[in-house]
Specification:
Elements lengths: L9 H7 L12 E11 L11 E7 L3 E7 L4 H5 L8 E12 L2 E13 L9 E2 L37 E2 L5 E2 L13 E9 L3 E5 L2 E12 L2 E8 L1 H6 L8 E5 L2 E4 L11 E5 L4 E4 L27 E18 L6 E10 L4 E8 H6 L7 E10 L5 E3 L5 E4 L4 H12 L7 E2 L22 H6 L9 E12 L5 E4 L10 E2 L4 E3 L4 E3 L3 E4 L1 E7 L2 E7 L1 H8 L3 H10 L1 H10 L4 E13 L2 E13 L2 H14 L5
Parallel strand pairs: 3-5, 3-6, 12-15, 19-21, 19-23
Antiparallel strand pairs: 1-2, 1-4, 2-3, 4-5, 7-8, 9-11, 9-13, 10-11, 11-12, 13-16, 14-15, 17-18, 17-20, 18-19, 20-21, 20-22, 24-30, 24-32, 25-29, 26-27, 27-28, 30-31, 32-33
The chain binds one DNA strand through strand 10, strand 11, strand 17 and strand 18.
DNA sequence: CCCCCCCC
């Protein structure tokens, strides 16, 4: 790299430009980063997002700018370091204490490791730099305890010019000290209206997440603001918003990346933006599913993958609140040949459909450590099915071209003690039945999990199904009350029940045999018929039923099981439950063996 | 002014 390749003159131009001219100067400047420094945040007691101050040079002059926080990964991953050459693709300007502050919104790395080019000096106007650093040269700025830049009390002044002649403020620059702002933001999440009731009173509220190119912020409307504004905002749309209140965020309650949050008030002005140019879009920092194991539990991350499996709709009852919520597990895979379980909740779980293995992008999903690594949507997370972004198209192309053929290593079943697996059947972690007994799985207080391949030898025929509540997600046993079937849980009476399987199966492999308890999914796998159909056969013709039971033996399945002790009538016994059961797919097995051979060192 | 983000 030479001085000629840098965009000489740009630092002087940026430095001298009036604030509302900065955006108009365009972008695409090639510059050298002379310094990258973390700025200490002293205004917020809660842990803050890192902010980086950059000094960049065009070879002649240097200026100072802030790095938009969504680019922080470039620093933390070491993709930009001192002296890296970058192209600044997008730049804006903000006002702090009447000083112009440049914010780098997007950049591309041209070359990471470089020598310093030329001998640049501070750009002519000092108005870009805060007074305490205006005369510093990059080499001399050794102070690590820099003053906070963005969140100081400051005169409110609009930063950049919007399309319709209004002044648009970047979300990253919002603080309690600015008041005359308008943001142009996309609603990336809109929650349902919630009500609360506690000692201090009761009321209703809703949350939205607002996002522009510079950042995101959570906004909440209470009571009257709910009536006034809830219907005005639609997820996915872009709005001009002004006259909201900005306060310090209580970080422990939100995963939205902002030190502040916004309260929408009755007089908050919200106007839909219909101008289709330059709308804010979601910014992702995708990580590969392979690299998930490096993340801590409860961290959030962005991932993109193919939806390989859509689990059935389930229900969990929260231990904390005793409330029931719908959930659904998805399995996503990516180019790193890893798969991971992704749990979605509530209405999203109920309405989720995905026919043809779509690409789905997730932003801000929570990392769990159950059975290895798993992911879960939060209310602040964002999911986009078949997003029109480059990464999605690349993944689509790769998967359709090569991916369908691959086997994926699950993040959600590694690292369990004893090397067992979670819900997915894992060929590498399989146990023989004798091994299950000998290693005393399920004998400790917790549930142990294992995979096995075994053949069904016998199914206890007398009681293979029970009359269940037909309400989706209930499945509780109902009782015949003469003129109908009563579900205590739903407090309803139904004309007829929906039978569901509950079976004891003896299964065997070369090493031994075991009794497994299976539920509805297991019955469907064994019989290929619903329990209703089976019960109908049983009622119509007992010998047909007996023949069916006899024929059910002899088939071989892959099982995912849980071993657990339970106590019933003062008797403690070890029970093995089937969590997943599927016919052996010999084509899949052969592919798995082939991949094993490919992976083994002697074959390389 | 809410504040739960769940379960195996």
């Amino acid at each position: 790299m030479s001085q000629q390749q840098l965009s000489a003159g740009v630092c002087a131009r940026l430095s001298e430009a009036a604030p509302d001219e900065v955006d108009g100067l365009g972008a695409g400047y090639t510059v050298q980063l002379l310094s990258i420094k973390k700025v200490n945040q002293t205004t917020s007691a809660a842990p803050a997002i890192d902010r980086y101050r950059i000094i960049f040079s065009d070879g002649v002059h240097f200026v100072q700018a802030m790095l938009a926080t969504q680019l922080n990964d470039l620093v933390s991953r070491g993709e930009i370091i001192k002296n890296s050459i970058v192209v600044i693709d997008k730049l804006t300007c903000n006002f702090v204490q009447d000083k112009k502050l440049l914010i780098i919104l997007d950049l591309q790395v041209v070359s990471k490791e470089e020598e310093k080019i030329g001998n640049p000096v501070s750009a002519p106007s000092s108005s870009i730099l805060p007074p305490d650093t205006a005369t510093e040269t990059p080499e001399a700025s050794t102070s690590t305890a820099s003053r906070p830049v963005v969140s100081r009390p400051a005169a409110a002044r609009p930063a950049a010019s919007g399309g319709e002649g209004r002044s648009i403020y970047p979300i990253e620059g919002l603080s309690p000290y600015q008041n005359n702002w308008t943001v142009k933001a996309r609603v990336t999440h809109k929650a349902d209206i919630r009500t609360w009731s506690n000692q201090r009173g009761e009321g209703k509220l809703f949350n939205v997440t607002l996002m522009d190119e510079t950042g995101e912020i959570r906004a909440t409307g209470f009571n009257a603001a709910v009536d006034e504004l809830y219907d005005k905002l639609e997820e996915g749309k872009v709005y001009y918003i002004s006259r909201g209140r900005v306060n310090l965020a209580k970080k422990k309650f939100s995963n939205v990346q902002n030190d502040y949050e916004m309260t929408l008030e009755r007089n908050t002005v919200i106007e839909e933006c219909v101008d289709t140019t330059n709308l804010p879009t979601i910014k992702y920092n995708f990580i590969s599913l392979a690299s998930m194991e490096n993340l801590q539990k409860d961290a959030t991350c962005d991932v993109i993958g193919i939806i390989k499996e859509v689990g059935p709709l389930g229900e969990v009852v929260s231990k904390a609140t005793n409330k029931s919520v719908a959930k659904r597990d998805l399995t996503i895979v990516d180019k790193s040949l890893y798969s991971v379980r992704m749990t979605i909740w509530g209405r999203q779980a109920e309405t989720f459909t995905a026919d043809d293995l779509p690409v789905v992008a997730f932003k801000g999903v929570k990392v769990g450590d159950f059975g290895g690594r798993s992911l879960s949507m939060l209310s602040s997370s964002y999911m986009s099915i078949s997003p029109d972004i480059e990464e999605a198209h690349l993944l689509r192309g790769w998967y359709d071209g090569f991916g369908t053929d691959k086997t994926f290593q699950s993040q959600s079943n590694t690292m369990l003690p004893g090397g067992s697996s979670f819900s997915g059947f894992n060929r590498n972690e399989m146990r023989h039945l004798s091994d299950v007994k000998e290693s005393q799985l399920g004998m400790s207080d917790k549930t142990d999990i294992f995979s096995t391949r075994a053949t069904v030898m016998h199914i206890k025929g007398e009681n293979i199904a029970y009359p269940a509540c037909p309400t989706q997600g209930c499945s509780k046993k109902v009782t015949d009350i003469g003129d109908g079937w009563r579900c205590e849980k739903c407090d309803k009476t139904y004309e007829r029940p929906e039978y569901r399987y509950v079976m004891s199966m003896a299964v065997a492999d070369w090493s031994g045999q075991l009794w497994l308890q299976g539920f509805n999914d297991a019955g469907l796998a064994v019989f290929g018929k619903t329990a209703d159909e089976i019960m109908e056969i049983k009622e119509r013709n007992e010998s047909d039923y007996n023949a069916l039971m006899a024929h059910s033996a002899g088939k071989t399945f892959n099982f995912s099981c849980r071993a657990k002790q339970d106590t019933y009538n003062d008797q403690t016994r070890l029970r093995y439950g089937v969590s997943k059961m599927s016919s052996v797919d010999y084509y899949e097995e052969a592919k798995g063996l082939r991949d094993l051979i490919k992976e083994s060192s002697w074959a390389r």
